[in-house]
Amino acid sequence: MKKLLKYLKGYEKETVLGPLFKLVEAVFELAVPIVVAGIIDGGIRQGDWNAVLLRCLLLVGLAVAGLVFSVTAQYFSAVAAVGFATKLRHALFARVQQFSYSQLDTLGTSALITRMTSDINTVQNGVNMMLRLFLRSPFIVFGAAVMAFVVDPHSAVTFVIVIPALSVVVFAIILVSIPLYDKVQRRLEGVLGATRENLSGVRVIRAFCAEGREERAFVEKNKALLFMQKAVGRISALMNPLTYVVINLGIIALLWVGAGQVHAGIITTGAVIALYNYMSQILVELVKMANMIVMITKSFASAARIEETLAVEPDTPAVSGKICAVSDELDVRFTDVSLRYAGAGEDSLSGISFTAREGEMIGVIGGTGSGKTSLMNLIPGFYLPREGQVLVDGIPTDQWDPAQLRQQIGVVPQKAVLFSGTIRDNMLWGNPHADDAAIWKALEIAQADQVVRDKGGLDAVVEQGGRNFSGGQRQRLTIARALVQTPRILILDDSASALDHATEAALRGAICTLSPKPLVFVVSQRASSVMHADQILVLEDGAIAGKGTHEKLLADCEIYREIYQSQFGSEEATA
Q1: Which of 3, 155, 354, 451 has the largest count of CB atoms under 10 Å?
Q2: pTM score of the predicted model
């Protein structure tokens, strides 16, 4: 938590004034029992109703003043807590944006979402509660004990016994609860992860009629979360009854001792009432303190997870300020490259070697899970090879400035993603300075210009995820977005799977007319998408099973021939 306190910088005034105003309010509250004792002893007992009225007005004044100070304190505390959470959220989001694909895979999307939302909200509430009550509640507890000694030292001995007993109860429960709250939050991450997987894969789940299995798995995760929440809830629930038992035993002892003091004429009835009120104040404040400590305990658990995420150093290449000269003919070379994902037991790619030059079209084909997307992710440096080198323009990807490297590369991912806003907003992701003419040209090449016109032009609204567009329309728009960038290297990662053959052929032909012509990687499971490429790479289990032109592979590569025959028939393959 200490490392996160730097995000309170800029809110020093609110951090000081919040607790200060709460302490002033506490002083007014400690004065109330004395005034009540005066009403009983100096007013009611003597029949002086003017004194009663004046002291009642004084009570009203103390209440109003306390309210003003309390509201002011809560305002300052809220400003500091919300500002702190805002800065922390920005810092965490910025750090997550710097993480490499490997780190995102390791940390997990659901865990990062939980830390960005639930954990930060918990820490915000903890800071707010701490500023409001961290000084006020102990001040009331010990202030009430001091005032009790002022009223009657003999009776106040009860306070000396009750306060330590209450402290033992509260802190014992806290020490047991702290690790359990961390387990609760981690199991919540598991539930969120299962929910996210089910929502993103709902079509697959329904296609395989696996709803029942997923429901059972979800129920099991919820039961685990429920069990842990009940366990920590039972322990936390002991706080109030145990504190009430101790306080009520203290009140009984106080009244018994106080009654003897009154009978002996040592103290007045009003003094006993004041002592009782101070004991009640201690009860109320300790209950508040218990709730505050529970909240702070949760906050510490959440803060530890946030600190853990912020402590992860991004492993993306960061060659700041380095200018990598780009030659007239950009090339991409793989030299005996192997890739292994974090936590995996074996390589996803192994022994990959080939060279591709600007102006060429490279086809990449293979079955599902053969490593096609993994291969493409190495070119922009999304992942770094375990062995070998990936060189762009003769420079290894880990020595490039990532921003400059990716300015040369237009990537159209396997899953077409559009962002909420307008079509123009989405197109400008490729080049923020592109004018409408450049955007329309890219749309025409991507065969998406008519789609945009039908939707009402570049200012047409795009809903979240592009759900107001069909799959084929989303693919064409994402291709156009990459083309707006005018990349030297264009990666089409199975990005035409939702297009019909005629549209795909028109797209391929339009890309070939680009000037200057980029180095194009076409990843597909369709033989028709790659058969016209200058070089085709056939992947099988993460290795290159064949390399060459369409005609060469039909003659020499059995895997490519099987793929082609399954799509076109054996007669065409042998023709």
Answers
A1: 155
A2: 0.71
